[in-house]
Task: structure prediction
Amino acid sequence: MGYPALMTSDLWAIAAAILISAGLLASLPLLIVVGVLVLLVWTTGKYWPRFAFRRLTYSRRLERRRAFIGDLVDYHITVDNDKLLPMIWLDISDAFPLGLHTGGTYRRGVGAEAELDHRITTSLLPYQRVTWRYRIRCRARGYHRIGPARLRSGDMFGITAAEEHVTAVDYLLVYPRIVDLRRMMNLWERPLGVSRGRRLIQDDPSRFVGLRDYLPSDPLKRIDWKATARHSRLESRIFEPAATRYMLIALNARTGDAAWQGSNRRLFERAVTVAASIAEYAQREDYTFGLVSNAVASYSSKWMSVPPGSGSLQLEATLESLAMAGPFWVAELSAVLRAETETLASGATVVLVTALLSRGVIQEAGEIRRRGHRVIVFYAGDGEPRAMAAELPPDIPLFLAGAALSELDELWREDWQDEPEDAPGMSEPGAEPGAEPAL
Result:
């Protein structure tokens, strides 16, 4: 028999009754006091676990459910003890994802099972409600789950302890960071010096709107030679953008040559950032755009696909899918592209985002180009893919986006368990019985 079971045995109640009765019969106050104390200890140890969590509520509240990397989100925890019985001590343990950070968290587990443990220890008077207010720093994209929580409490004598599990969970969706697309448009120069444009927007040559001074970046076919002769200076034609502009963003989740190499989380996060930035550019420039990827979505086992659309709602849907993209691939990107580009609008632009420039991707890019679509490749890997890049058709531009994003804060780091000194959290405030403390 363990110590708690021994102390809550009914024999102690019998012993207490004997001591009190003997004290009354012998008129010995000391025996009565001892008997009452024994009865109090026995009653507390036996019935505390049964009533400790009755009419005790635990709740969380997030200021908002969607955020971007780097944002701070207000986070409230409230415990309400709506009964006469006080909580001598209460220990709260809430599961927290690695991608979110706040004060009072400790790392537990290793590898894929690692997570943070958010701990609060307090005591509550009868009919007291206490609220803790924290600020969560969003450190990684994803669909982050907070909870479930475990509550533990015990009696004043340390004889017994009770435990309660709160299964309710809360979710915070963190979008990938968006950067200026021009920052990533570092054009790879071919060894033979083939020149390729840097524009994602295509003009409609049938919709002439005016003239402007010639720029060194203008192709020769834009020069209006009659206007040049008339004004004695080079002038270029200005065309309106194409009436219908369609873009398909294709994200490659594969980061290694062999399947046994697994996924390089750092490179994958970089590729997601590039794809999100291109989506934001497409929305800003009034493209009709969609997204496909061989990455597995966290809510299904199929590859990701966002149907084409335009406007802010389309951008939100695209960023939401990218936020929930897992660093694992379910098929080769070339197979996904073959399936998703069969009904692609004529003249559409296909933007490939990849950290691995494989022969299959290059061959599929060439095939898409032969079907009359424009193809642009953004390379999110380290360095320059010289060997494979040379196999790209000359009319497919390759931008080296990886070098421009190598120092972004959202890239996956293995030292997230190190809590900074300025952890965004607030300690427990003082509280009056029955009132929520104001901070």
